[in-house]
Model the fold of this input.
Amino acid sequence: MGRYVIRRLLQFIPTVLGTMFLLHYMTSLAIQFSGNPVRAIFGDRTPPPALLQSITERLGYGDPCLEQKGNPCFGLFLDRVSGVFLSFDFGIDLREQEVTELVANAIPYTLKLLVIAIVFEAVVGIAAGVWAGLRGGSFADNLVKISTVFVISVPIFVLGVVVREFIGVKFGNILRDQEWLPDVVAYGFFSPGFKPDYPFASLLIPGMVLGSVALATTARLTRTSIMENIRADFVRTARAKGLANKRVIGVHTLRNSLIPVITYLGVDIGSAMAGAVVTETIFNVPGIGRLVTAAAREGESSVVIGVVTMLVLVVLLANLLVDLLYAVLDPRIRYE
Amino acid sequence: MSDATSAGTAVGGAPGKTSKSGKERNASLWADARRQLVRDPVFMLAVLYIVVVSTMAAFPKLWTGQDPRACHTDQSRIAPSWEHPFGFNIQGCDYYSHAIYGARPSMVIAIMATGGIVLFGGLMGLLAGYYGGWVDGLISRLMDIFFSLPFLLGAIVFLTVIKQQNIFTIALVLFLLSWPTIARIIRGSVISSKDLDYVQAAKAVGAGNGRLMFRHILPNAIAPMLVYATIVLGSFVAAEATLTFLGIGLQPPTQSWGIMISAHQVYFLEDPWLLLFPCGLLIGTVLSFILMGDALRDALDPKFR
Done:
């Protein structure tokens, strides 16, 4: 187990370095081809060359290799990597704010959004999957099967826009006219966008939108794997031993059926984080996704590289955790 | 992680050849699958829808005589009528012709990107699975790099950095970020079948590496790849619309369903049809590809017979 974890952690090194280099090369090429991003600070005014020079130096865009088209800038890359890993220095953006600070300000919103999404998709998805899987071929089964296909095929931004306009604006306006409703419901939960006054309630609907597609996949996975396991020998043995139905379903069937579901939920953390970009844009949440999009648009390579590297690390760790969870769920799996 | 996925696909890929033996009727896997698919009404409906959308993409003139660029601002947001079944958009252009011409970029991007991942991802998976050793190590690490980038986030970063947003760059970005999945599927099936008896027999007869890979091993890996490619076509259509919606995909003078949705989202409450038509077409296309993929999977997996 310990050796397995260490081997996996060592495998992270080339992956993270490779991702960082990819991002570094992309952003360097962008600077080489479209010019110094520092000019963006001045808008359409032309800055005195000396001023431009000194600000460029201070923000870390002064390396001469950024002017040679196609140069991969290995020196700059090494500086960046050693900065990130040796002194936890992710650089600064064009306004001289620390990237770590920008991330620290934005991450609580994205984390809340992710937690809401994952709790929602896990609880509702697994419940719906078990409900359908135990009654194969019934009305419940068909309902879950058909509705999930529809949910999967709706792109998340279509769902987000429709939910925002229909539930947040139209239905919310009706609720906001009712005086007996507490404000946290009318102005928080049913608000068409993020409200700083209700930092949790107004994130609930965006979180559910974010989790909905994965919810449908979770429900389908749970359903198929329950249907497979319910016919397995070990379930029949458990029944033959005379165990209570609750124990047969809850322990023997469900525990085994959850293995693919857990894998999916773990892998989904990565795509949910990406999906958060869309949800954050639609519902106006000041999270990580908006930070990256804005940074990429302004050519602030240090922000893009820093934030995406952190996210990649989160994805890799989530995948590792999932693999370790296998061994807990399935006694046949052992890592050495 | 990679061990777990390869084991999973190995199970999915293996039954392809077991079905050939032990059947009284002398039918191949593909003939059986075709017979089952033709009888499946859901599959046939999905195919019909895709054919309709494809003709919209290939020959928009068949569907509409209107010019999507002939706009009069005094006709802005006029509701659907008999001559103009989808009404007019915010700029007073005929919305029906926009919807028809909007099919092309989505379909072209989806087909180019899918073709790319099938060819490149398939080749990478084949090489990694067949040669193993350092080739596998190198390709697997390369796959990890692209795999660990969250799809949409990676696409946003790449497209904003490239600054050239047209059909080709969008297809290129989608291809770059999703080839590892198909490479993993192929790698898993290749590993599970490269030590089988008939491959050993072919090797003993003196078949070279190329012949072994493409004639003997690859055909077994085709079925799971085909299923995945069908579903991924749908998700690329959705991804193109999503990127366009976020403002980093196709840009307004082009006609595209994503542009139609993002330009009219604020009018949803007054004129819902401005959103319903493009959303309906988009969802229908994605749904059809997913249903086709599901039906193909059921037909190609003998376990479900």
Observations:
- The first helix of chain B runs from residue 2 to 13.
